[in-house]
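debug: dumping io for the single-chain case to check the tokenizer round-trip. Nothing else runs in this session.
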Amino acid sequence: MEIVYVYTKKRSEFGRQCNFSDRPAELHVDIIPDPIQAMNFIERNPCDITIQCSRDMSEHEINTERFQTETRGINHVEGGWPKDINPQEMEQTIRYRKKVEKDENYMSTMLQLGSLMEHCIKQNNAINIYEEYFEEDDTVEGTEEPPSAKTINIFRDPNTIKRTITHLSWHPDGSRKLAAAYSCLEFQRAAKDMSFDSYIWDIENPNKPELTLKPASPLVSLEYNPKDSHILVGGCYNGQIVYWDTRKGSQPVELSVVEHSHRDPVYKVIWLQSKTGTDCFSASTDGQVLWWDIRKLSEPTERLILDPTKKGSLDNALGAISLEFESTMPTKFMVGTEQGSVVSCNRKAKTPAEKIVCTYSGHHGPIYALQRNPFFPKNFLTVGDWTARIWSEDIKESSIMWTKYHMSYLTDGCWSPMRPAVYFTTKMDGTLDAWDLLFKQNDPSLSLKVCDEALYSLSVQDNGRFIACGSHLGTATLLEISPGLYTQQRNEKALTTSVSIKKYVVILIGTSGKTVKCSIGS
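debug: decoded output
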């Protein structure tokens, strides 16, 4: 059965009818020619016209809106682990793995997957007859190429009032991001409307920071957590400790209480090796070293006053401006002071007085950089006044090697993470120096003018290939160094040890019963 319903409506109810008719053309506007306009044109003579047999095609161009892409990460709260297993706890994961390996289906599943993987591996191992094998080995051996560096990117402070980059920190996973702390260290010279922001940069995008960090006070130091790359801890100009979780945005997660924080700018913050991955410690020119757990920043977990008289008095304390901690020596740490000495400390000592073990004196001003050699932890580098010095932990009287006195003040320095004989320094004249102890000790093997203003901070990527330098006017320069400066040479560790030993001589005078140690520097 078909149902049909017809809607009816009068023509007069839905608009006026259009009536069309033919009529002659009408003139509405008549623009009279203006002879004055002819003065704006020049007659072209001769006039050449090209004629072709093919069709005339026109070119059309338009400006489209720029499409900006943004990369975002996804936080997986639960993955392949059961809900009752905490992936961060090593004991639980090991226990769960052993339980799975005892399962009957485990062996059969692994054998089945093994045959599939073997087939894929054999495909990957197929020989390409056009490939040049062992090409990299030849380049490693060839060290005739002189050391060099080239600029990859430049990251500028986006604010109108420029600030100094006081610290740089590489992202621990892949090192594709660079965190920079911006502040003005010139006491009482900071502008009133100066920005407090610091930034995280993507090294491939210098136009816009990937994330803006908004502290309550300008950041002097900033460090990525090596265990959790989303967490950063910073030391503020007003002495507070602050930490961020980049998954939660630009605002800090927690801030230390002013009453229990440092009294001066926090020049260095270092993460400690712990099961939770939340422990760190900080140093400031107020003469204190404080230990923190970022889960509870209301007060420090431990405190050490750098009083050389070992009385624990802040009036006699040495101002800390650099800090060094090596994970292979969990109880030891070193502090570089404003007074030009390095204080070696033992955290696990029974009394506060015993925590200060000894001091190393050799600089005439503040020690801006202090770092142990990654390959020889007993040797450490200090940068201060006009020199860079290399020390041995066993010799307290003098450094075993030192550079000549430069015309410009040295501001920062660090070892190469790939070569035990290479370290880098920055100077106030905007120069980056690369030192290779196996090549020569008196002069840098590479001296590069990075910018016209002073360089204040320096950080080397974990693979040793890229170096980031921070300047006085807030410009971070990313440099790529030549392979000779980050590729370890044959027998380099043994050669570095022999060079270090030859730089100091121990003379024993048995007749007078005295022992004299004489150090010979470069």
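debug: round-trip ok. The chain has a mean pLDDT of 84.
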